[in-house]
Amino acid sequence: MTRQPGSSNPFTCGLDAAVAVVGGKWKPMILWALDAEGVLRFGELRRHIDGVSEKVLIQQLRELESDSIVKREVYREVPPRVEYSLTDLGQALNAALVPLGEWGHTNMDVIIANKERTAEKTAEKATAV
C-alpha cells in the first residue's frame, strides 16, 4: 500500500501507523505491565520496568496518553495520586502484540545468539583497526 500524493495520511500502511504508536524499547513494556496489573501508580509502574529512567518513563507515558493508549487519572488528594491504566484502544494494541511476544519467546535463544555473534564481530573489527 502506498501513500497517495497530496494525502494528509502520514503513514504508508497500517504497520507504519502501529509502529509510530508503540515503537521504542519501553512502550511495549509499559503496555505489558499495565495489562498484567490493571491500574498502576507511577512508582509501581517504574518498578515493573527494569532499567527505565524516570525521565524516559514520563516521556513514554505522555506519548502513549496523547495517542489514547494509556489513561492518566489524577486524584486531587493530599498527597496527590496519579494512576495509569490501558484504554480500550490500548488493550486492543496489547492484544495485537501478544503474537509478537510469543514469537520472541519462541525464538529468544536464536535472537540472543545472533546479537552475541554481531557484538563479537564488531569487537573484532574494532581491535583490528
Describe the model.
It contains six helices and three strands. Helix 2 crosses helix 5. The N and C termini lie far apart (44 Å). It is globular. Helix content is 62%, strand content 11%. The longest helix is centred in the last third of the chain and has 21 residues.
What are the SSEs and their pairings?
Elements: H1 14-22, H2 27-37, E1 40-41, H3 42-48, H4 54-66, E2 70-75, E3 81-86, H5 88-106, H6 108-128
Antiparallel strand pairs: 1-3, 2-3
Assembly classification = single chain
Which residues form runs of ≥5 with pLDDT under 50?
none
The percent range for helix content is 55-70%
Describe the strand arrangement of the main beta sheet, using strand numbers.
Answer: 1-3-2
Strand content: 5-15%
Count of beta strands = 3
Counting H and I runs of at least 4 residues, what is the number of helices? 6
* Average pLDDT score: 91
- Radius of gyration (CA) equals 19 Å
The major β-sheet equals: 3 strands, antiparallel
Instruction: Give the class from helix and strand content and strand pairing.
Output: mainly alpha
Q: How would you spell out the order of helices and strands? A: HHEHHEEHH
Task: Give the CA-CA distance, first to last residue.
Answer: 44 Å
Q: What gross morphology would you assign?
A: globular
